Amino acid sequence: MPPTDLPSPTLPLAARAVAVALAVLASGCAHEVRDAVRPVATAPTCSGFLDEGRRCQVLVHADRMATSTSLVVVKGQRYQVQVAPGQKWCDAQRCSTPPHGDAGSAVMNLLRRFRRDDADWFTLMAAVVRDKEGRQRIGHGQPVETEPVVEVQHTGLLALYPNDVPGFYWNNRGDIVACIERLAPGAAPASPASASGAFCAP
Ligand SMILES: [Ca+2]
After folding, report:
1. How remote is the CA of residue 99 from the centroid of ligand 1, in Å?
2. pLDDT score for 139
3. Fold (topology level) of 13-183
């Protein structure tokens, strides 16, 4: 069976207690994070197949288990994921700057073993998924910060998401813009994203 990201219905009682505490702490989320999104006017929106050397952009939602890029990726292909600079999104009241994650509070870390991936809270993750909702991974999730190039192992849809505990995406806020580039075989990844207007230019 492929790995699945459907929320587990069997969190232990202690974890549920922590969950209630986190829910109390989650009030008053920052709506202003949505204003921080800066779409890239010149970049096409990702959809379907992407030719080698081409780029497209996708809006990634913090409160979704995964945002499908709608990009069909095929085994053997390589894609680089970059994030437009100056963005933030939030897990309740803790905000971070993607693709970087957050070490989390002491309370949050009582639940750290239930996180979907072995990476900091809200680390931007990339994975190949089977369905448009992005709820079922067919490859492992990888942190974009340290592994920005996705070497496709399974044909499917490329998806992005912040690392969190299944069932705890409801208190996430914010959307971020990411840029996907299909690398030609043997091509070196592009340099890290800069604040220049050339980010994700086609
Ligand atoms: Ca959360």
Report:
1. 16
2. 80
3. Jelly Rolls (2.60.120)
Question: Where does the pLDDT of residue 196 fall: very low under 50, low under 70, confident under 90, or very high at 90 and above?
Answer: very low
pLDDT at 137 over 60: yes
Give residue limits of the domains in the chain.
13-183
Ligand 1: distance of its center to the CA of 102 in Å?
12
The answer to whether the beta carbons of residues 154 and 128 sit under 8 Å apart is: yes
The answer to whether 179 and 147 have CB atoms below 8 angstroms apart is: no
**14 is written with which tokens?**
């202690």
Is 27 exposed, middle or buried, given 0-12, 13-18 or 19+ CB atoms closer than 10 A? exposed
**Contact (Cβ atoms closer than 8 angstroms) between residue 58 and residue 45:** yes
**Which residue bears the tokens 């942190």?**
143
Structure tokens at 110: 């009582």
The tens digit of pLDDT for each residue in 151-164 reads 999 999 999 999 99
